[in-house]
Amino acid sequence: MKKTLEVLGMVCPFPLIEAKEAMKDLSSGDELEVQFDCTQGTESIPRWAAEEGHEVVEYEQLGEAAWTITVKKK
User: Fold this and answer.
1) For residue 20, what pLDDT is reported?
2) Which residues are 55's β-sheet partners?
3) Average per-residue pLDDT in the chain?
4) Catalytic option among 3, 8, 10, 12
5) Is 12 known to be catalytic?
6) What is the maximal distance between C-alpha atoms in the chain?
7) Percentage helix, strand, coil for the chain under 3-state DSSP, each rounded to 5
């Protein structure tokens, strides 16, 4: 299953907080696609995923200040 979390316009650290909350509802192997536009998220979201043992399966810059990171739950 893949869930999309659209947090464009949210100021850091809220995209990360929302991602943590959304991840709780997913099962192992599910993917969470986080769409965001706060620069700090480009570091904080992958770092959080690594610390939790999740896998970043996709990382894409959508625009000048917009990204999507897909995290696969461990």
Assistant:
1) 98
2) 72
3) 97
4) 12
5) yes
6) 32
7) 30, 35, 30
In words, the CATH class of domain 2-72 is alpha beta
- pLDDT score for 10: 96
With b for 16 or more beta-carbon neighbours within 10 A and e for fewer, the 38-73 pattern comes to beebbebbeebbeeeebeeeeeeeeeeeebbbbbbb
Dist. CA 70–CA 74, nearest whole Å: 13
**pTM for this entry:** 0.95
Q: Within 1-74, where are the H helices?
A: 14-24, 41-52
> What phi, psi does 45 have (nearest 5°)?
-70, -50
pLDDT for res 69: 98
CB hemisphere CA count around 46 (13 angstroms): 12
- The pLDDT score that the predictor gives to residue 16 is 98
Query: CA-to-CA distance for 40 and 51, rounded, in angstroms?
Result: 16
